[in-house]
Amino acid sequence: MKVTIAAILASLFSLCAGSAYAADYAAGSGSLLVRARAVHINPADHSDPVGGAGASDRIAVSSKTIPEVDISYFFTPNVAAELVLTYPQKHTVYLDRKDIGTFRHLPPTLLAQYHFMPGQTVSPYVGAGVNWTTFSKNNLLNGGASLEHDSIGLALQAGADVRLDNRWSLNFDVKKLRLRSDVLIGGAKASRVKVDPVLFGVGVGYRF
């Protein structure tokens, strides 16, 4: 009898604890959600005429799939802030489809999000914020050309978390960044590249 009562009490405690955590998850206030994603960068590849004359869109930047980590803090069940991070990424630059060199960029992004259905199995969200991209290790035209050092622009986001349990979730995410840079040859502006990439992401999240 004692063993049976102990088992029942343990089951009730486990159930209550699980329900309390589910309620905390739904409430979301003060909660942290960490995600890891694989993200494909698809640049728009628009550019001004080189030297101010001739055809547009002659300069292009390579697409790439990169790892990404983001940290979201929930101020309320619906409102969160997300910081998106990765390490410096290497891209190839093309002029008239010919490889003219490489550069690296680091693109941290800070977004304010609204989650429409917090705590539900599928929770869609939208976000808007700022992207700051810094360019480094420019090696264009054997050192004869480079990109402007920084780019600051608007970032837009839409996605959804698919809840697996009280902690784990799948994530699907799309971001659009305004990312532009002058192309400098001999220190003078030769063109302006409008990378403006769309980022398609899929990953997993863990809620603390």
UniProtKB/TrEMBL annotation:
Keyword vocabulary terms for this entry: Signal
Signal peptide: 1-22
Subcellular localization: Cell outer membrane
Pfam assignment, any one: OmpW
SUPFAM superfamilies for the chain: OMPA-like (SSF56925)
GO CC, any one term: host outer membrane
Major location category of this protein: membrane
Keyword match Signal: yes
The keyword Signal is annotated on this UniProt entry: yes
Top-rank lineage group of the source organism: Bacteria
Biological-process GO terms, alphabetical: transmembrane transport
Protein name, UniProt field: Outer membrane beta-barrel protein
Source organism of this protein record: Pseudoduganella rivuli
Lineage: Bacteria, Pseudomonadati, Pseudomonadota, Betaproteobacteria, Burkholderiales
